[in-house]
Design brief:
By secondary structure, the chain is an alpha+beta fold. Helices cover 28% and strands 17% of the residues. The chain has a seven-stranded mixed beta sheet, covered by helices on one side. A five-stranded parallel beta sheet has the order 9-2-1-13-23, with helices on one face. The chain has a three-stranded antiparallel beta sheet with strand order 10-11-12. β6 and β7 form a beta hairpin. α1 runs parallel beside α16 and α3 crosses α4. The protein is globular and about 70 Å long.
């Protein structure tokens, strides 16, 4: 496990260079023990405690607005330290994008409703903040939620036509990092052999990857943040396979758009995955998912534990307004499903809603108090949603992630139930479903192969049929697909995708880490004295910063640390964050690159760029 080494606030290229030292430290875990997971249930009546001025030093009342991973994380950290926390959530359940989706009224004979996932719920080995939280969520009878993770050992790059599929084991290996030239040659060989790219293209990409790995922070934020990934890897000059495997891969794996995605963000993710596969600084296997539906394995026990710590939940409340006076939030207003208003009083407010909803709360007074909130208007979003296929028989595919390389909608699938502990047909549904096949759709703008329209211009049923057709084209040979139509029992598209007279709408968009977007993202601690932020758009420094459960968790930790400081809670244990792995072999190269950056020179390996 990596050592704790977090971040202090600071400035740098684009208004936010990652600082060197951390002021956040870890506190002891809170009270153990939780009963059965109370995930949904009726919305709790919200009656805020009275007394004390908003934001008074020493005040202990905290209103967390949003029950996604970021909101639950800040609630966890503060409840462990004796704060009175109420979480306000617009849905009837907790978990945000991480929650499971259930097909209503699909369970019979004592079985639970059919479960689906918004995405694949990958908990990667280079995650450190999230696994620490999982270890601190106790289970009845002993153990923790962390023990409910199961490794994914294979990933397959599936192709259409007669092009061969590329199955790759996801296991830590060994590779020398003794020098940049040797690493370029070794990595190029692995790409040529593993992804079957032309050797010169593999070597070209390997040189670009090592350039990123050995770049100093100043160059990463001052140069690579402002260059699109597609342009950095010079995809226009390369083969179609290079573009799909190494250009489109950014969108396939991170819901990014290669033509506009930040090279810094893509390179950061590539570096983390690379070290993970080497077994360097990993918190466990390179790829893991939960051994059952996420809400049952993780979110439910988490909510139960938070309730045991005294956290109150007000479900079914949509926050519509933050009242700001003299540079501080004095109250918030939420409305229930009938439109009835609730006033929320607290000493400290933590906004843990997605960026597209947060900007609607930033009124003129808040924007004047902190101009960085107004900058969030420039953040971009995309659609990235899941569809579940429930099968009558297990599909003959690998028990791992399948990247459908040639799919116009950038599909990644996984037969999750192959990795779940409970027997599917006896646990969920009507007894006829034996497998759940989860698929992420990352591109909603490109025409499909069945209807010739982008996903967002299809009906929900057409989306399901189109995705099935694109998967069938990838899985099977000699005109035969392993996804025979007779397998299909039913499907369920993410409920965030709604259908209206004007077409499909998206209620849960993803943040795009586009070029220069770092400049638009705020820190967890705002200039508004008692307002803090805990969501995946917040600047994070400890590991990676693309949209993920890990970044939301880190943002929640930083928001909690901000509350502790503002409240003057010096007696409370400080909050810990974890840094990602940094190869010591590259320390000298990064120092040399820092000197070149200061002199206005390009990276020593960046020989072909103008």
């Amino acid at each position: 496990m990596t050592t704790a080494d977090g971040i202090a606030t600071g400035s740098g290229p684009g208004g936010g260079r990652p600082p060197r030292r951390d002021v956040l430290r870890y506190g002891a875990a809170g009270a153990a023990g939780a009963g059965a997971a109370g995930l949904a249930g009726p919305a709790a009546a919200f009656a805020a405690p009275r007394g004390g001025g908003s934001g008074r030093r020493g005040g202990r009342r905290v209103a967390v607005l949003g029950a996604g991973v970021g909101g639950l994380t800040v609630a966890h950290e503060l409840a462990e330290r004796g704060f009175e926390v109420t979480v306000v959530e617009r849905r009837a359940v907790a978990g945000g994008k991480a929650r499971s989706l259930y097909v209503p009224h699909s369970g019979t004979g004592g079985r639970r409703d059919l479960p689906g996932e918004h995405g694949h719920r990958g908990v990667f080995g280079f995650y450190h903040n999230l696994p620490d939280t999982l270890r601190r969520i106790p289970l009845p009878g002993g153990g923790s939620v962390f023990g409910r993770l199961t490794p994914v050992t294979w990933i397959e790059f599936a192709r259409t036509g007669n092009r061969p599929d590329i199955p790759l084991p996801v296991r830590p290996g060994s590779l020398s990092l003794s020098g940049a030239p040797l690493l370029v040659a070794t990595l190029g060989g692995l790409l040529a052999e593993g992804l079957r790219l032309p050797p010169w293209e593999a070597a070209h990409f390997a040189r670009l990857a090592v350039t990123l790995f050995t770049s100093c922070d100043e160059r990463r934020f001052g140069q690579w943040e402002h260059l699109a990934w597609w342009d950095y890897i010079q995809a226009d000059r390369m083969s179609e396979d290079y573009q799909k495997l190494l250009g489109g891969g950014a969108q396939l794996l991170q819901a990014l758009r290669p033509p506009t995605a930040s090279t810094r963000t893509c390179g950061q993710g590539l570096e983390a995955i690379f070290y993970d596969l080497l077994g360097r600084g990993s918190d466990g296997p390179a790829d893991r998912i939960f051994a059952g539906p996420t809400s049952e394995e993780w979110i439910g026990p988490w909510v139960a534990h938070l309730r045991a710590l005294g956290v109150r939940f007000a479900f079914g409340r949509t926050v519509t307004r933050l009242e700001c006076r003299a540079g501080r939030v004095v109250s918030a207003t939420a409305r229930d499903h009938r439109g009835a208003p609730d006033r929320i009083d607290a000493d400290w407010f933590v906004a843990a809603v997605p960026a597209d909803r947060a900007v609607r709360l930033w009124n003129a007074a808040l924007r004047a108090a902190d101009p960085r909130l107004a900058a969030m208007d420039g953040l971009r979003h995309t659609w990235c949603n899941g569809v579940q296929y429930f099968l009558r028989r297990p599909a003959p595919v690998i028990a791992g992630h399948i990247v459908h390389v040639d799919s116009p909608w950038k599909l990644v699938s996984i037969s999750q139930s192959k990795l779940w502990r409970a027997p599917f047909e006896r646990t969920w549904g009507d007894g006829q479903v034996r497998e759940s096949l989860s698929v992420d759709i990352s591109d909603w703008e490109t025409p499909g192969i069945l209807y010739g329209r982008p996903a967002r211009h299809c009906t929900r049923e057409e989306v399901a049929r189109e995705v099935w057709a694109q998967m069938r084209a990838h899985l099977g040979r000699a005109g035969r697909s392993v996804l025979d139509d007779s397998l299909l029992h039913s499907w369920y598209l993410d409920e965030a995708i709604t259908e209206g007279p004007d077409g499909l709408r998206e209620d849960d968009p993803y943040l795009l880490n586009s070029t220069s977007s770092w400049e638009l993202r705020p820190d967890a601690v705002t200039a508004v004295g008692n307002l803090f932020l805990a969501a995946d758009y917040v600047r994070t420094y400890a590991n990676v910063d693309f949209t993920s459960m890990e970044t939301a968790n880190e943002a929640g930790r930083r928001a909690a640390a901000g509350v502790l400081t503002a409240a003057g809670a010096s007696e409370a244990p400080e909050v810990r964050t974890f840094r990602g792995y940094e190869a010591p072999e590259f320390a000298v190269l990064k120092r040399e690159d820092r000197e070149r950056w200061r002199r206005g020179l390009p990276h020593v390996l960046d020989t072909g760029r103008r």
